[in-house]
Amino acid sequence: MAEDDLSSAFITNNLETRFIGQRVIYYPRLTSTMEVAKREAQQRAVEGTAIIADEQTAGKGRIKRTWLSPKGSIALSIILYPDAAYLPYLIMLASLAVVYSIETITGLKSQIKWPNDVLIKGRKVCGILIESDVRGSIVGYVIIGIGINVNLRLSHFPEILPIATSLSDELGGTVSRLDIIRCLLVEIERLYLALPAGESIYEQWRDRLVTLGKRVQVKQGGTVYQGIAESVAKDGSLLLRHSDGSLTKIVAGDVSLSD
Ligand code: BTN
Asked: Ligand 1: which of 60, 62, 90, 255 to mutate, most ligand atoms within 8 Å of CB?
């Protein structure tokens, strides 16, 4: 498959943002964009700095899992210094920005599995990892890491084939990673600047959640909960109704849909 060039000049050229993606650090090959982003954030890199890799050799997933990130996928991390009040909205913002960018560039419709996996026809096309340095109400930094399966033949990756998909597999043709990244940077900034009106981001995110109303199983640490995903709270947590009528509020966890 033809590879598009992701080096920084191609990304920043006439990019219509004020600060998100105006500084790009690009690597053809890297362990994880999260590692470089963390170092940069600790040195107070300018807000909106984006770390992008053509290929990651040790991509990090949620809950200490690894993330497969070969050539043809998008791996990017963005550094932010938000107000503590906006922290719960960043998960929503990141998944919405991915959904909107996929739709704009490819026309494909995607949905969000709580809290922030992006799915097409029930299969995962994008994973999001948020790492932060927060002490009390002081936010040192937040890093939003986004991995999207763009031009991957999932049949070449049997380990994730049953649960994953890629944009090219869905479309039956290659997709410009550059177009997706540039659109994503614009969407992230648009939603980030709209955060003072956080209500609307919450509603947009809730309306895209495929999880609500479904029977689910949620793993949180060593505990497994089962029930109906009834609703989400404004802080992003999931409200799970059990068969005995009781309700559990889940702040973080891994959801599987049972039906
Ligand atoms: C998940 O669903 O488990 C989250 C996956 C997040 C992957 C992205 S790819 C860019 C950034 N760098 C990483 O090492 N991980 C995130």
From this structure: 60
Instruction: Kindly list the protein residues whose Cβ atom lies closer than 6 A to any atom of ligand 1.
Output: 32-34, 56, 59-62, 65, 67, 69, 75-77, 117, 127-129, 145-147
Global pTM exceeds 0.85: yes
Output the pLDDT for position 97: 98
Q: What is the CA radius of gyration of the chain?
A: 18
Ligand 1 centroid–CA 161 distance in Å is 18
Q: CB–CB of 74/146 below 8 Å?
A: yes
Q: Residue 122 in 3-state DSSP?
A: coil
- Checking if the pLDDT of 190 tops 80, the result is yes
**Helix ranges (DSSP H) in 69-122:** 87-106
Among protein residues, the one whose CA lies closest to atom 2 of ligand 1: 127
26-37 pLDDT per residue, tens: 999 999 999 999
pLDDT tens-digit map of 79-125: 999 999 999 999 999 999 999 999 999 999 999 999 999 999 999 99
Tell me which of 24, 27, 34 to substitute to probe ligand 1's pocket, judged by most ligand atoms within 8 Å of the beta carbon: 34
Q: Are 113 and 99 in contact (CB under 8 A)?
A: no
Q: Where are the beta strands (DSSP E) in the chain?
A: 24-27, 50-53, 59-60, 66-67, 74-80, 111-113, 117-120, 123-135, 138-148, 215-220, 223-232, 238-241, 247-250, 254-257
